[in-house]
UniProtKB/TrEMBL annotation:
Residues 1-149 form the PEP-utilising enzyme C-terminal domain. This is PEP-utilising enzyme C-terminal domain-containing protein. Signal peptide: none annotated. It holds the Pfam family PEP-utilizers_C. InterPro entries: PEP-utilizing_PTS_enzyme, PEP_util_C, PEP_util_CS, Pyrv/PenolPyrv_kinase-like_dom, Pyrv_kinase-like_dom_sf.
Length: 174
């Protein structure tokens, strides 16, 4: 998985470096090798249609993407609260990633929001198909996913995208 991809050229170069390393190893390409990128910068989310055909998956980093989308470094206490993965602007980037990926690549989410069982339906409604949660959250998130009605989840996603802020999105999730 290649991190911090912003441009198609970066991905092409990274894939080239991977191919070179595989060739240098002399054992051929592993049959089960899956190649993906982290979607951590808004540009990658908005260019998902161009990036997706070159990878097997797009993993949306919901800790980093909000900080870059909202210009709010999560390590800076003065602005960290602004970097909220449930901000409608961030949700729009998640939706754009899923729409751009289409049938080319699986869309996954990692980060704290992936372990939030209340957000599971929303993420599925936005087009996410895999969640990478901390081990302690796997059971409750898995059950939440099992309980999702995808048509309702899509409606929830549409409503969340129309919200003015993350607080309003959280109210929808209750």
């Amino acid at each position: 998985m290649f991190p911090m991809v912003s441009t198609v050229d970066e991905l092409v170069a990274a894939r080239g470096a991977l191919d070179t390393a595989i060739d240098a190893g002399g054992r051929g390409r592993p049959a089960d090798l899956r190649v993906g990128i982290m979607v951590e910068v808004p540009a990658a989310a908005l260019k998902a249609a161009a990036l997706a055909p070159m990878v097997d998956f797009l993993s949306i980093g919901t800790n980093d993407l909000p900080q870059y989308a909202l210009a709010a470094e999560r390590g800076n206490d003065a602005v960290a609260a602004l970097a909220d993965a449930l901000d409608p602007g961030v949700l729009a980037l998640i939706a754009a990633t899923a729409a751009g990926a289409g049938d080319h690549a699986l869309v996954a989410v990692c980060g704290e929001v992936a372990g939030d069982e209340q957000a599971a339906a929303l993420l599925l409604g936005l087009g996410v198909r895999e969640l990478s949660a901390a081990p302690a959250a796997v059971g409750v998130v898995k059950q939440a996913v099992r309980d999702v009605d995808l048509a309702r989840a899509r409606g929830l996603a549409a409503a969340a995208l129309a919200c003015p802020d993350a607080r309003a999105v959280r109210e929808l999730l209750r």
